[in-house]
Amino acid sequence: MIYDIRHVTSYAYESPVSFARCSLRLEPRSGDGQELVSHSVDIRPKPADRTVRRDFFGTHTESILIETAHRNLRIDSRSRVSVSRQAPGRAAPSPTWESVRDVAFEATSLGPESPIGYVFASPLVPVQRPVTAYAAASFAPGCGILAGAVELMHRIRTEFKYDPKATVISTPLKEVFEKRHGVCQDFAHVMIAGLRGLGLPAAYVSGYLRTIPPPGKPRLQGADATHAWVSLWCGEGLGWVGFDPTNDILVENDHIILAVGRDFSDVSPVDGIIVGSRKQKLAVAVDVLLVE
Amino acid sequence: MAGQDGQEGGRESSQGSRVRPANRRVAQWMRDYARLPGIPDEYIAQDGAPRAVWNRFFDAFAALSPGEIDRRFGSADRHLREAGVTYRAPGETSDRLWPLSHLPLLIDEADWQQLTAGIVQRAELLELVLSDLYGEGRLVAEGAIPAAAIAGSAEYLRAVCGVKPPGGRYLSLYAADVGRGPDGRWWVLGDRTQAPSGAGYALENRLVLSRAFTSLYKSMNVERVAPFFEAFRDSLRASADRDEPRIGLLTPGQFSETYFEHATLARYLGFLLVEGDDLAVSGDRIHIRTVAGLKRLDVLLRRVDSNFLDPLELDASSQLGVPGLIDVLRKNGVVVANMPGSGVMEARALLGFLPSLSRRLLGEDLKMPNIATWWCGQKAARDEVLSRLDEVAIEGAYGRGVPGFPGSGPVLAGELSAADRERLRGAINDRGIDYVGQELVRLSTVPVWDHGRIMPRPFVLRVFAAATPNGWTIMPGGFCRIAEQTDARAVSMGDGARAADVWVVSDKAVPASTLLPAVDTVRIRRIAGWVPSRAADNLFWLGRYLERAEATLRLVRALGTSQRDPGKGSSPVLHALERIQRLLVTWGATSQSSRTQPAKVAAEALQAEDKFGSALSLVRAAQRTATSLRERLSPDAWQVITEMVERLAQEVEDDDGVVSAAELTLQELASFAGLAQENMNRAAGWRFLEMGRRAERAINTVRFARQFAYDEAGGEDLDILLTLVDCQITYRSRYLVGPLLAPVRDLVVLDPYNPRSVAFQVAALNDHIASLPTLKEGGLIERPQRLAVALQAMLTTAEAASLDTKTLFSLEQDLLNLADAIGSHYFPHGPNASRPEKLTGLA
Fold this sequence. Notes:
The complex is a heterodimer of chains A (292) and B (843).
Chain A: E1 2-17, E2 19-24, E3 34-44, E4 49-54, E5 60-66, E6 70-83, H1 97-105, H2 129-136, H3 145-159, E7 161-162, H4 173-179, E8 181-182, H5 184-197, E9 202-209, E10 226-233, H6 235-238, E11 240-244, E12 249-250, E13 255-261, H7 264-267, E14 270-275, E15 280-290
Parallel strand pairs in A: 7-8
Antiparallel strand pairs in A: 1-6, 1-15, 2-5, 2-14, 3-6, 4-5, 9-10, 9-13, 10-11, 11-12
Helix pairs in contact in A: 2-5, 3-5
Chain B: H1 2-13, H2 15-32, H3 52-62, H4 66-83, E1 86-87, E2 96-97, E3 105-108, H5 109-133, H6 138-141, H7 147-151, E4 173-180, E5 186-192, H8 199-212, H9 214-219, H10 226-239, E6 247-250, H11 259-269, E7 272-274, E8 279-282, E9 285-290, E10 293-297, E11 299-302, H12 325-330, E12 335-337, H13 354-362, E13 373-375, H14 379-387, E14 392-396, H15 418-430, E15 435-439, E16 445-450, E17 453-468, E18 471-474, E19 479-482, E20 498-500, E21 502-505, H16 533-561, H17 571-586, H18 598-607, H19 615-627, H20 635-649, H21 655-679, H22 686-708, H23 715-724, H24 728-734, H25 741-750, H26 758-771, H27 783-797, H28 805-826, E22 836-838
């Protein structure tokens, strides 16, 4: 499948901003069952400097510097991505979770693909006993890792309430877990925390989801949003498998990967600092259009 | 010092006649010294005989009479208090005095050589491991270090993987915590590779003790620590890529628990003490914001942990760092010591792998052993720990605290409930990667002084090593922390431990050719270059607070002494007193004036805790401001401020007490001004202190003039004004009549030769502004200068006759504007300017 994605981020400031330094992670990656066909980012006002590098996780990262005073910052990113991946079946056979854990602990690489980077707490995902205990209920001794993770994902989907007004990005995981509500990145963080508590390697994925309008209704432009889910390492054979706890589905051809990291803080699409205005208003509009 | 020295020499030379009591005292101390069973002691060897160095020390020490010993210890404590050597324990909001154990830890030269060899080897090893971990990664790929033992550390900084450290090394300053184990050998208990603390305290400790016991110190042939700091400074200078590099010491600020040490080190090494806000990235370099604009910074010695260094790439919530710093490192634009990410070597998980890493990378065994440590991420080690769970201490493998258990120290399985024991066992089985088991070691003890006796207490010694172009050099001495309990294992300053100076003692006489100074004096170096804007801002306000305190004290004194005036009941006098009180109310020094009890008002204006304008509040504000300028103020200046605060905080007994407290404080203010005038380096921001003083004095003097030289002012009013501005004598020598309006106005406002007049202050401000750099190109006159020049022209040409109340009022407004203009021009990132803000929201 080929998608055209438009991702527009706009900031409006109450008073003029004289200086901005930002990191953009807006270019979808190639690999993991998808290919980047084309990509461009338009930034207004024009940056004084743009430099590009790959970060530790292999994500295309652009640093921009704006030195002209502005009240609005608009970052318009367009990508065309072709996706072709196959998820294992929900009931497919898999190694026991304990064996996956033990193999992960023995890793001999610190690289971004190595499972060992994803079994410890990370800046936004602490490993805490209550969350670990919650996840442990889905992983009986000797249980297959896939079956356990599918059940955990299902429980999060049914036991947590989707509520975009309940949380912000700084809401701590503990609160999300106790109140059982949040949005996609909260559910991903909860699932990751539970899996890591058990010693299982779980990564955070940011990206886009193709939304299918209700029958008979047209697709609304700009109604989509950035999305987040979980990638779990299921042993040498299966490798990394995507789980979307917000929708209780395994990741296949409706998901477009933007970046992978330990948690949101590693992949945040637009991040930065400004000098000049305390009051900011953010608007994000995403369109995911199926080309063919 | 000379007097004290002579005194001590006198006593020691009379040693012959006092041999017997001194010997008796040493024998008594030894008899009462109850060594702990089975634990080695520094003073007394296993066979019960005292060690040679300690014998020498106690023989000389006992020659001092008990009263003299107490006096010396008292003087050491007083010095620490007066110098403001403080330590803030984690979780506390105010500083407390730093407890000094009065006896030094003595280490003889042969013992020290062994320790040194072990530390040098270890520093070399850790540097090699770091450069592999962040570089090629062979150690992990080939299984010499398990990946998990690295990945678990929050100090493993993915952002700097593959970045070559500018300056060529990861570690510039390294410290090891060591203790003497039961076998009598030194053991390494832990490594400090992030930003080792304690070197500045060691320095201060040495200063205090060597001053209190000058002759004793000299007679012991103690190795000096100063050359170590010089080598360290020179090595940091050499790491920069230009000749006269600008070096900053990055501190989290005055709320950091070790802020005093940061200021001490910055002053001693001649580095600029900077906070994240003082720095900015521009181009591919780090710059410091100074009163002359952005200036390039070459080297940053950091006391901020890696993760807080760059909110853009690391912890996004950090306010302590510099946005873009990591990117500058990638571009080789600044040397950061130690290199961010170096802290990964502090993980206990790695301790057990160092012996084999030493053989692999250096081809030799570790010269000094680690404390035995088993990382539970590997099955054999895990099984070992689980089988001896009661005999080991369980620690977190990476940071402070044991995951899943409260507190920041180790967990001893033997002290847990049965349920918690099982939980610990389960946790180690499930996520062994998070835990280590460490052998329980009881460390050797050292004598501490306790009311005329000595007692054994366990200690940990922190040894410092600096990288130089010629290899590692070790500070002969260190930072010794002593536990209060006899059974302490982990020693932390916050747990009420004491610190001690460490003397490395040579048994050879010091070669005659060496000019060994009597004491390890702190050589204060000139702080080079322009003042950072924040420091200039603080100096400006320090000047203003002190000057405002002076004006308030003058009003208080005038009010207080008026009660002694024979004509005090007369209505013009009462009227003038009301005007004084009105000023004090306007300035927030007191809540309301009182016709009948002006003395009460004076007392409140002097020392009310809850009035922001009271003299006490103003000197406290000055003290707070001075705290963040510690590296720029001489110890004497700091001491004067402390004394003023202490004096004004003491309750006064009666009206006379108010007047005398005000008078004494005014004298101290004058002595501070004198110290600043005579002792303060002109390059180190003196101008800004002066400008603050001058601006404030000009404003206050106009306010006085407005109150007491108003258009209908009478003789009593003018008389008070002349007293307030200290011009009685000048006036009387110049005019043979009583105070008249026009002459008084001329003297107080316009006379350019009167150092208390408004015109004099404005002329001084003009001089200062003219000698500061201009920030903008284009040759246009800048705002502070424009205002100051205009004011001076006005004051030069004005005539006293035309100087009415209305003119005075507009003069006051102009002066306020000038003060604001100075602030916003030279300190653009002061409290009112914008700081960098995070972009908000989920984008």
